[in-house]
Design goal:
The protein has 247 residues and is α/β, with parallel strands linked by helices. It has a single domain, classed as Rossmann fold, CATH 3.40.50.150. 44% of the residues lie in helices and 18% in strands. The chain has 9 helices and 7 strands. A 7-stranded mixed beta sheet has the order 3-2-1-4-5-7-6, with helices on both faces. It is globular and about 50 Å long.
Length: 247
């Protein structure tokens, strides 16, 4: 693990989420899906400390396999699951979500919030499609560009950090090309960024700053630049949730 990654994990440790999201919104997306089998096979890929996995387990009352590379996040998830009486439904797996050796068609519902960008959206769609049978469902959120033309500062930031970011229409086309029907697209409300992610993250930054190492200070600076960009241009980009069915 690089010092930068270690600092990034430390910065996000103990936060309610490792990315933007909202439990009520997760429940709403779940309710928009077609009916699942009586005993659905469910996985949350790139689960972080499990905000979505816990909602899925609670709402479905079904086992959820929660996958992440960060053992510290999975330990947090196991603790939260036990506290909420969901320990019997959460199965954590420390693994690379882009290199799972699971059997084909092993899931009925594949869920991933704020993590697919690590493989690129097109890469995640292609990599995960074999895990679903025809008719299997996926809900995957992705950084999405909402306006055209983008403000120049936003264009430069995301061109450098995530050059494949696209519009809702572009991402829908990527999903169709990868073997899915698009059942719906829903944008995560802007307040879900502030209340559940950037707000707690800013407080975490202030707690760590006094004793921060040079590496941590560098990670903090990058994080604050990202937050500032969203504060000024949050209407021009965000997360969309893509509700998909494998074909």
């Amino acid at each position: 693990m690089t010092p930068e990654l270690a600092a990034l994990l430390e910065l996000h440790a103990g936060l309610p989420r490792q990315g933007p999201g909202d439990a009520a919104f997760t429940r709403r997306m779940l309710k928009k899906l077609p009916p699942l089998p009586a005993s659905p096979r469910v996985a949350d890929l790139g689960c972080g400390s499990g905000a979505a996995a816990l909602v899925l387990a609670e709402e479905l009352q079904a086992p959820v396999t929660a996958v992440d590379l960060a053992a510290s996040f999975l330990a947090e998830l196991n603790r939260k699951a036990a506290e909420r009486g969901l320990g019997h439904l959460i199965h954590t797996v420390e693994a690379d979500m882009g290199a799972l050796d699971w059997p084909a068609e092993s899931l009925d519902l594949l869920w991933s919030e704020g993590a697919a960008y690590q493989l690129t959206f097109a890469g995640a769609l292609k990599t995960w499609r074999p895990l679903l049978p025809v008719g299997g469902l996926a809900v995957i959120s992705e950084l999405t560009l909402f306006v055209e033309p983008l403000p120049e500062e936003v264009r430069k930031f995301w061109s450098a950090g995530y050059p494949t970011a696209g519009s809702d229409a572009e991402n829908a086309r990527r999903a169709v090309s990868a073997g899915y029907n698009v059942l719906g697209v829903e944008r995560l409300p802007e307040d879900a960024w502030w209340e559940n992610y950037y707000g707690p993250l800013e407080r975490r930054v202030e707690a760590l700053r006094p004793a921060a190492s040079p590496t941590m200070l560098s990670v903090i600076a990058e994080t604050e630049s990202e937050i500032d960009l969203f504060r000024r241009y949050g209407e021009s980009y965000g997360y969309s949730f893509y509700l998909l069915r494998a074909v």
